[in-house]
């Protein structure tokens, strides 16, 4: 049975990914600070910003076939808030690094998969999102370089870049921007918000055997682009 770790698997996009991978028959561990796994998924308490805790967690698993770096934190105006800046970088970037390093040490050669949830903000700038944009651009750079570093082991490393996805994170941002969900949807060319399950579908493909030749890529999942402030 394949072993898959989904960080931030307790809510939102991570929860949908955990359920999707479990439906394929994998043993799935959803790791977050406050574990609340969906049915059929194991929960684990983990703060991805804590390198030593990440190492202990992965050492306890033995083998890992799939790592989904999904745990994330967003926040506006970090330019004027150093604590927020460091928290956003620590969660999105350092968390991804800690987990990738620990998982790779336990990933068998041939068939291993790392998929990181970046963002369309990893591909463009938004004025009040300096830390989040920096972190998401960085995880895409990390993905491209790490893919080359482990290509010879038959392990693939990819990122997906969602636009608006209906979760608590997006709802908080819409409130900040004074947008209703319908107004946010109107800024998407296809006219609706992406569901967590639609992101999970792409992640399951990249994590599966059919995507063995795809590595070092950053795949937008944004309904054709996004009107952002
Ligand atoms: P949510 O805020 O709904 O969920 C975030 C998840 O991450 C929770 O399970 C949370 O659990 C976990 N988490 C946060 N910090 C840590 C930490 N330090 N260690 C371990 N787990 C942590 O977010 P989404 O589901 O919306 O976002 C998931 C990913 O998708 C993120 O990387 C986000 O940046 C990205 N994304 C989201 C978009 C959207 O529109 N929703 C668009 C583009 C990208 P707990 O608090 O218990 O630790």
From TrEMBL:
<dbReference type="Pfam" id="PF13561">
    <property type="entry name" value="adh_short_C2"/>
</dbReference>
<dbReference type="InterPro" id="IPR020904">
    <property type="entry name" value="Sc_DH/Rdtase_CS"/>
</dbReference>
<dbReference type="InterPro" id="IPR002347">
    <property type="entry name" value="SDR_fam"/>
</dbReference>
<dbReference type="GO" id="GO:0032787">
    <property type="term" value="P:monocarboxylic acid metabolic process"/>
</dbReference>
<feature type="domain" description="Ketoreductase">
    <location>
        <begin position="2"/>
        <end position="164"/>
    </location>
</feature>
<comment type="similarity">
    <text>Belongs to the short-chain dehydrogenases/reductases (SDR) family.</text>
</comment>
<dbReference type="InterPro" id="IPR036291">
    <property type="entry name" value="NAD(P)-bd_dom_sf"/>
</dbReference>
<dbReference type="InterPro" id="IPR057326">
    <property type="entry name" value="KR_dom"/>
</dbReference>
<dbReference type="InterPro" id="IPR050259">
    <property type="entry name" value="SDR"/>
</dbReference>
<protein>
    <submittedName>
        <fullName>SDR family oxidoreductase</fullName>
    </submittedName>
</protein>
């Amino acid at each position: 049975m394949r072993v898959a770790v989904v960080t931030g698997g307790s809510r939102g996009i991570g929860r949908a990914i955990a359920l999707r991978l479990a439906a394929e028959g994998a043993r799935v561990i959803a790791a977050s600070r406050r574990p609340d796994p969906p049915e059929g998924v194991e929960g684990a308490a983990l703060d991805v910003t804590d390198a030593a805790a990440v190492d202990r967690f992965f050492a306890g698993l033995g083998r890992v076939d799939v790592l989904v770096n999904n745990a994330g934190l967003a926040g506006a105006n970090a330019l004027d808030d150093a604590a927020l800046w460091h928290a956003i970088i620590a969660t999105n970037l350092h968390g991804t690094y800690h987990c990738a390093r620990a998982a790779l040490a336990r990933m068998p050669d041939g068939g291993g998969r790392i998929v990181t949830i970046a963002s369309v903000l990893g591909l463009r700038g938004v004025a009040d999102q300096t830390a989040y944009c920096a972190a998401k651009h960085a995880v895409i750079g990390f993905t491209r370089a790490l893919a080359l570093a482990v290509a010879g082991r038959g392990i693939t490393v990819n990122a997906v870049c969602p636009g608006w996805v209906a979760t608590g994170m997006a709802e908080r941002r819409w409130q900040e921007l004074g947008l209703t969900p319908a107004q946010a949807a109107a800024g998407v060319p296809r006219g609706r918000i992406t569901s967590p399950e639609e992101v999970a579908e792409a992640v399951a493909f990249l994590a599966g055997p059919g995507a063995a030749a795809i590595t070092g890529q950053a795949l937008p999942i944004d309904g054709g682009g996004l009107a952002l402030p």
